[in-house]
Specification:
With 883 residues, the chain is an alpha+beta fold. The protein is 56% helix and 15% strand. It has 37 helices and 17 strands.
């Protein structure tokens, strides 16, 4: 420990990267605030720091006795890095498994890095909001920080989610007991006492809580159970005193051990005599010698302050932050640094030029950069803190947040700025660099304004593709384009990154530009370009180039007849599902390990209404490693189309059990719950989806559930959505579909006409076509023809897309200018056969074939097995017709 004698010696000054919690000190045995932090040891004269000695990481500094452990900051950083790197690698390997995140957080807590642990916990909780272990960790950290209210809410959530979890039950009961909420604690502790892992501790707390409520018999029973379970407690004097008190209140006979435990041998009380106060003397004059000493102290203070400022100006902090998906080696001015993936290190550099070369672990150069650091002027230095960031590969996106802390919640504020695409930059006046800000700070009680603090950290939830889409939505197209191109340059064959690039090209450019982008992806990743071909086919399907695709992939198949991928890709552009199924079967025969052909074969069987075959193929794909999340949804849809959603329950539940965070599995189970009218289960699953889906998707699913339940509040929910700018377009669609469902076709058409540009032209045309089809079913051919003519004018104005082609076919089919077979062909190409079955049913009704109408509309419902439009609308048509 540092030591001073008469103000001369060594002391610590400064504390950063602080982690603190309330605990019992292992040295003095008293309850205290136990802190760990980075600091520097100084040589002092009269307690004024003059000469810096070394930087340390202080561990377990007791606020009472001040005893602690310490490590060289450099050694601590190296050891910590060595420990954390494998854990972060495990997270990279299994990003959907919460266990590596939990291990990382526990390790950080073990290394006394609670602030970092809290930051990692918050990031993990965003990914796994329903994970009980993470919730318990959150509660434990809140207890350590003295935030009992937050800890209570976390323990309560964990206990409600998993009542049988012994840690959740015991922690919840312990905290309630500590907060003297004994009545509530008793029921929780009884639950904890029923579980072997927490039985003894829960029984002790249970007895204590029952004593507080004067339930002496219950308390005695709890303590006696504890004795039976753990005989060693029979020698615990504190526990014996508790039992003694219970028996005395109940009038029971005491044992000899209980009587001895209650004895007090020291009969005398502690003296409370106060020392007399000394009278206050007169004001003393300052002697000249003391004045000179004061001037010397001021001079020393000024010298020390100047030295500190000089040190801060001369040694500038630079964070080297590696956002790459692999470890790197840095050569910094000849000094070698190892930097794990998704990790950072801090160096102090002096004024002047510096050169950095970044290499991978094999020694291959990734990039190099020369940068220049300039000292701040003497006038600026006292008023500004600053640091620099070297963003390896330019991969990180950073978040600068401005937090307005206030006593009144309504005066608090928050704003943020994202910083991306910068390799080396300076940041100034940051209160919380690379750390999470606190939930609250001390604010003047008389102040009504907010106190502004600034945080700076890596935006772990935003990668470059996401950053590009954010900038695109903000209208910053050039920056978005640069970001996505940079992401592609770093990971040229990453599926998500390249699909984002294709989407960007279609949104900011055109479908032709997106097609060219997808084609470049095929060329760039020739060794593994199946996903690139899929994206290329999807975008050209949107561009209504189905015939050209058939020619192109027919030639590819002819040149590679033994290629499983070629057969699969040709099957994707086949118009007839039976022909497509034959191609998929051949692809599976040639390469049984390919997943997509099995999924596609299941889909083809579903289009042919061979639902058992479809479920078999989807089930096989679900058991394959590396499958897409959507497979579980396809499996559920096949069961719904078959008319027996319960037949998919066991498999989907197995998938959810083995992959609890898989979005597709949760959505699949939600579809099954809705199809089975299990409203409670559907509502519970929607809570799971809340953290994974967008607010718009959540609103749509909530509204859909209300429609299925025939809940009378659905119309009020849609009205509220129409008043919300963010939900207006969705609510407008919901209102029109609702009118179609109720058979109010003229009102639906009127709303479509009033919507103007709020609806996409192709969507509006398709909805108007359904209104016209509904009028045809009602026998009002004249009004229907007018609506269909208006829909035809509208669809001509729509941009090229599969939806436009389907809408045009549906309108022509309803008007009789296109055959039902032709409409079916167009719908199959767009994977929208439900609309073709609707046209067939209406044409049968016009031909007075009532039996055919009902059968064909039933086909339409089965084909709408995603439970989206037109499932409810056509089902209502059949119900109104008496079937």
């Amino acid at each position: 420990m540092p030591f001073t004698l008469n103000g001369i010696g060594t002391r610590y000054y400064g504390a950063s990267n602080r982690s603190a919690h309330v605990d019992v000190c292992q040295k003095c045995g008293r309850s205290a605030t136990i802190s760990s932090y980075d600091t520097r040891e100084w040589f002092c004269i009269i307690y004024i720091p003059l000469i810096p000695i070394a930087k340390y990481r202080i561990l377990d500094d007791c606020s009472r006795c001040r005893r602690h452990h310490r490590l060289s900051l450099k050694q601590f950083s190296e050891e910590l890095q060595k420990t954390l790197s494998p854990l972060r690698d495990a997270i990279k390997r299994s990003p959907r498994d919460p266990q590596p995140y939990i291990e990382l957080i526990r390790t950080l807590v073990g290394w006394k890095m609670r602030a970092d642990a809290q930051r990692e916990l918050e990031a993990a909780t965003r990914l796994f909001p329903q994970d009980v272990e993470l919730t318990i960790l959150d509660a434990q950290l809140a207890v350590d920080g003295g935030d009992w209210n937050r800890a209570l809410s976390m323990y309560e959530r964990a206990y409600k989610t998993e009542p049988q979890n012994p840690t959740a039950a015991y922690g919840y009961g312990w905290l309630l007991n500590q907060m003297e909420r004994h009545e509530q604690a008793i029921s929780i502790l009884q639950s904890a006492a029923a579980q072997q892992r927490s039985k003894s501790g829960a029984l002790y707390l249970l007895g204590s809580a029952q004593m507080k409520l004067s339930r002496w018999n219950d308390a005695l029973n709890s303590y006696q159970q504890l004795f039976t379970l753990e005989p060693k407690y029979t020698a615990d004097k504190n526990l014996l005193r508790q039992i003694r008190e219970c028996k005395q209140h109940l009038g029971y006979q005491l044992t000899e051990a209980e009587r001895r435990a209650g004895r007090r041998w020291w009969p005398f009380g502690r003296s409370t005599k106060l020392k007399p106060m000394k009278p206050q003397g007169a004001t003393a004059l300052v002697r000249p010698s003391l004045a000179i000493a004061g001037l010397i102290l001021v001079a020393i203070s000024l010298f020390s302050f100047g030295f500190y400022e000089w040190d801060r100006r001369a040694n500038m902090e630079v964070y080297f932050d590696n956002g790459l998906d692999r470890a790197v080696r840095l050569d910094l001015d000849g000094k070698h640094l190892n930097l794990g993936r998704n990790n950072r290190t801090k160096e102090e550099l002096k004024d002047g030029p510096h050169a950095v070369i970044v290499r991978d672990v094999a020694g291959k150069e990734i990039e190099r950069l020369t940068f220049h650091l300039d000292e701040m002027s003497i006038l600026q230095s006292p008023f500004h803190d600053r640091f620099f960031v070297y963003n390896v590969g330019g991969q990180r996106v950073y978040r600068r947040g401005t937090h307005g802390f206030a006593r009144n919640r309504e005066n608090a504020s928050y704003s943020e700025e994202l910083i991306g695409m910068q390799r080396f930059f300076e940041m100034r006046d940051i209160d919380y660099p690379f750390q999470q800000p606190p939930d609250s700070i001390s604010v003047d009680a008389n102040s009504s304004s907010a106190v502004l603090k600034t945080s700076f950290n890596a935006a772990e939830d935003i990668d470059l593709p996401t950053f590009a889409m954010i900038r695109l939505r903000q209208g910053k197209t050039d920056e978005a384009k640069t970001a996505i191109e940079h992401a592609v340059a770093s990971a040229p064959c990453d599926t998500r990154t390249r699909r984002t690039q294709v989407y960007f090209a279609s949104t900011a450019g055109s479908l032709d530009a997106a097609s060219d982008t997808a084609h470049r992806w095929i060329t760039d990743c020739a060794q593994n370009n199946l996903e690139a071909h899929r994206a290329y086919q999807d975008i050209n399907n949107e561009n209504e180039r189905q015939e050209a695709l058939r020619d192109e992939y027919g030639r590819l198949l002819a040149s590679s007849p033994n290629s499983a991928e070629a057969h699969y890709l040709y099957g994707r552009v086949e118009n007839d599902p039976a022909d497509a199924a034959a191609q998929y079967q051949e692809a599976i025969r040639l390469d049984p390990k390919l997943i997509w052909p099995r999924v596609a074969l299941g889909h083809a069987y579903q289009m042919m209404e061979r639902y058992d075959d479809a479920m078999r193929e989807f089930a096989a794909a679900l058991d394959m490693e590396g499958r897409d999340d959507s497979t579980a949804i396809y499996y559920a849809m096949a069961a719904i189309g078959k008319g027996s959603p319960f037949s998919a329950l066991a498999k989907v539940d197995d998938v959810r059990k083995s992959h609890p965070r898989e979005l597709g599995a949760i959505r699949a189970r939600w579809l099954l719950a809705v199809a089975m009218s299990d409203w409670d289960k559907a509502a519970a699953l929607q809570k799971n989806l809340a953290s994974l889906d967008s607010p718009e998707a959540m609103w749509w699913n909530t509204t859909k559930l209300l429609r299925f339940k025939e809940d009378p509040t659905v119309d009020a929910t849609i009205d509220a959505g129409l008043r919300d700018r963010n939900l207006q377009q969705l609510a407008l669609n919901a209102r029109i579909e609702r009118l179609l469902e109720k058979g109010e076709f003229a009102a639906a058409a009127e709303m479509i006409a009033k919507s103007g540009k709020a609806l996409q032209p192709s969507s509006a045309a398709l909805l108007e076509a359904y209104a016209g089809g509904g009028l045809l079913l009602q026998g009002d051919a004249q009004s229907a023809e007018k609506l269909l003519a208006d829909a035809e004018k509208l669809v001509v104005t729509a941009p090229k897309s599969r939806e436009r082609k389907v809408a045009a076919a549906v309108i022509a089919g309803l008007r009789g200018s296109q055959s039902v077979d032709s409409v079916m062909a167009a719908a199959r190409e767009a994977d929208a056969t439900a609309h073709a079955w609707f046209v067939a049913g209406v044409r049968a009704a016009v031909a007075h074939d009532s039996l055919g109408k009902r059968a064909l509309l039933a086909h339409c419902i089965r084909a709408s097995s995603d439970l989206e439009f037109p499932y409810l609308e056509v089902r209502a048509l059949l119900l109104r017709s008496g079937t």
